Amino acid sequence: MIECYHKKGVPDIIIKPSTALQNDYSEEVLKLRAKLAAAEQIRASGQGALSLEESRRRLEDIYNP
Questions:
Q1: Residue 34: its pLDDT value, please?
Q2: How many domains are there within the chain?
Q3: Residues with Cβ < 8 Å from 13, sequence gap 6 or more?
Q4: How far apart are CA 56 and CA 33, in angstroms?
C-alpha cells in the first residue's frame, strides 16, 4: 500500500495494490452469490412467493410512507 501525506500529516491519497482490490471485490461477489442462491432456493420451493399486488403494496409502503 502506498500512502502520500500532506505537510500536516493528514493522508492525501492511499493506493492499494490491485490484488487487494481484487480480494475486496471477490468477497463481495461471493456474498452476493450466496444471497442469490438462497433466494433461488426459496423461489424454487415456492416459499415466500408474492403476488404482483402484494409486491406492489410492499414497495408502496417502503417508498410512499
A1: 93
A2: 1
A3: 2, 3, 4
A4: 26
| 3-state SS assignment for residue 45 | helix
Residues 8-64 pLDDT 10s:
666 666 666 666 566 667 788 889 999 999 988 888 887 777 889 999 999 999 999
The range of the structural domain enclosing residue 17 comes to 2-63
Helix (H, G, I), strand (E, B) or coil at 13: strand
pLDDT score recorded for residue 42: 84
Give 18-60 as a DSSP string.
HHHHHHHHHHHHHHHHHHHHHHHHHHHHTTT---HHHHHHHHH
